[in-house]
Structure formats: C-alpha cells, structure tokens
Design brief:
By secondary structure, the chain is mainly alpha-helical. It has helices at residues 5-27, 32-56.
Length: 65
C-alpha cells in the first residue's frame, strides 16, 4: 500500500497528539490500574510513531568514494 507524504504526516500528528495526551494524563493522579493502561498505550503509540517515521523518512548513510 502506498501513502502520500501528507497522509504520513497526518498519521504522525495523530500519534504525536495521543502521546501528548497520555503524558498529560500520567501527570495527574491516575490509579495504579489507570497508570498501567496509560503507560502501555503510551509505549504502543511511541512504537507506532517511530515505525511510521522510520518508514517515511529512512536514513541512508553513504560512504563517500
């Protein structure tokens, strides 16, 4: 499946917004169960964001000849 750069950027913004929301919720006083859930979701969002960035903007290092 091929996506456009604008679709990738929109998906990155969505992940970033959820990451910020979960971080904000963790700054409050969540119960232990809520904290566990939020930390799991935060981890999943970070992984999804990182995978999307790596797939959209792969770094290629070339050794000069």
């Amino acid at each position: 499946m091929t996506t456009t750069i604008s679709e990738d950027l929109a998906a990155m913004r969505s992940h970033r917004n959820r990451i910020h929301r979960y971080r904000g919720l963790l700054e409050g006083q969540p119960t232990d169960l809520e904290r566990q859930y939020l930390e799991q979701r935060l981890s999943e969002e970070r992984c999804a964001f990182d995978a999307l960035v790596a797939g959209s903007f792969p770094l290629v290092f070339r050794i000069p000849t």
